[in-house]
Amino acid sequence: MAVKWFDEPEEHDYDAAADYLSMLAEDATVAATIKALKSAKPVDREAKDILRAARLTLLPPDNLHVRSDLDKINHGKKLSPILLVRGTPADALQIADGYHRVCASYLTDENTAIPCRLASWVPKT
Predict the structure, then answer these.
(1) Pairing state of beta strands 113-120 and 42-46?
(2) Which domain of life does the protein's organism represent (predicted)?
(3) Which domains does the chain have, with CATH numbers?
(4) What residues are paired with 94 via a beta bridge?
(5) 49-54: long-range contacts at Cβ-Cβ below 8 A with a sequence spacing of 24 or more?
(6) What region does 68 belong to: left with phi over 0, alpha with psi -120 to 50, or beta?
(7) Per-residue pLDDT tens for 6-31?
(8) Are 63 and 70 in contact (CB under 8 A)?
(9) pTM (2 d.p.)
(10) CA separation for the pair 99, 58 (Å, rounded)
């Protein structure tokens, strides 16, 4: 079954991304980076490449949140695009929001084109 996606991330995804990123950077940097994500043009990336760039392992299908996303996929419901923050070449990509959705997409088809918003860290000014 093909994975279906909303055209735009949901507003609460940006809040979740900010919560996660706040553990990695100062508030001003997080706020500027979230602003950059909101204005980023959509790009498609494959699930397998997102996981590799983020240096994350695939969560199992019995993970509660992955299972929930797999159920949505199986019922033809749309998922929210993924929010990604690019690090330096030495740093891993950050899945600011959507790790479980990436894993569910991978389990459905690792080559699924996933709509993403991709931005670089914006240093505080």
Answers:
(1) antiparallel
(2) Bacteria
(3) 4-120 (3.90.1530)
(4) 85
(5) 50/82, 50/84, 50/93, 50/95, 50/102, 50/114, 50/116, 51/102, 51/103, 51/106, 53/92, 53/93, 54/84, 54/92, 54/93, 54/94, 54/95, 54/99
(6) alpha
(7) 999 999 999 999 999 999 999 999 99
(8) no
(9) 0.93
(10) 9
β-strand 82-86 against 78-79: which pairing, if any?
Answer: unpaired
Q: Nearest 5°: phi and psi at 60?
A: -75, 160
Instruction: Report the distance separating Cα 9 and Cα 4, nearest Å.
Output: 13
Asked if 40 and 119 touch (Cβ cutoff 8 Å), the reply is yes
The answer to whether residues 95 and 114 touch, using CB atoms and an 8 Å cutoff, is no
How far apart, in Å, are the Cα atoms of 38 and each of 11, 16, 122, 125?
9, 13, 13, 19
The low-confidence residues of the chain, meaning pLDDT below 70, are 89, 125
| pLDDT (0 to 100) of residue 1 | 79
Going by C-alpha positions, the residue among 54, 122, 60 that lies closest to residue 82 is: 54
Query: Which pLDDT does position 29 carry in this prediction?
Result: 94
Q: Which of 65, 50, 56 is nearest to 117 (CA)?
A: 50
